[in-house]
Sequence to fold (249 residues):
Amino acid sequence: MGQGTLAAVAEPKYWHLRTVLLRTMDTEFSTGQVLPNERELSARFGVARATLRQALDQLELEGRLVRRRGIGTLVAAPRVGIPVGDREYGRTGTARGGQDWTVVDCTTGPATAALARTLNLAEGDQVHTVRRVRTVQGVTVAAESLHVPSAALPHLALVVDGNDRARGVLRQLDRIGVDGESRSVELGVAETAEAALLERPPGTPVLVVTTQYAAAGRLAAVAVSTYRADTCKLTFGESGVAVQVAAAV
Fold:
């Protein structure tokens, strides 16, 4: 096989226009301001309407623009800083900045093959799953599924259902003494279930934060938190300024 070379790829017109629009937004428009209509923008930049729509769609996907029916296309507000701290599973109710964790439901059932691998269990072992959403000033920015093996919480009363069971799972998890955690972040897209909780269409870009909790040297729980990449900037560490991860879509 011969030695190959990388051929130069021409930048798509819509992508170049996206860059030009970003510079224009930064210098001529402020947050919440309505952009000129498509006809005016097409004439100003000398591009076809189809190319303009591609660029606008891309900027909306990235969270730089917001479209409002009856109003037009607006410059979006900067991404909201979302602090992600230790023992996030124990945070409920209202936090700083008007941020809330709210329980959606709690179920107990057999682990699927994929979940069993994640939790180091046998397929079919019982697992408690607490689903929550996180809101900032009334807007849902994250959905979370916390998975805890039933064997890790032997004193949990199985007769309790709904939010009471969720609170029981969270309390018991705290009582067993979580003594370590690790966290990873990756870019993904919202699947159907998460998209419904986020009130966004499936395929929406998201930041997926996976946290593993350990107790007595063993894996005690795994939380998968799905954050909207178009509106969130995640901050890590007790101070919330140690590390920042902004979505780059």
Summary: DSSP finds six helices and twelve strands in the chain. The radius of gyration is 22 Å. The CA atoms of residues 21 and 104 lie 40 Å apart. Residues 13-28 form the longest helix (16 residues).
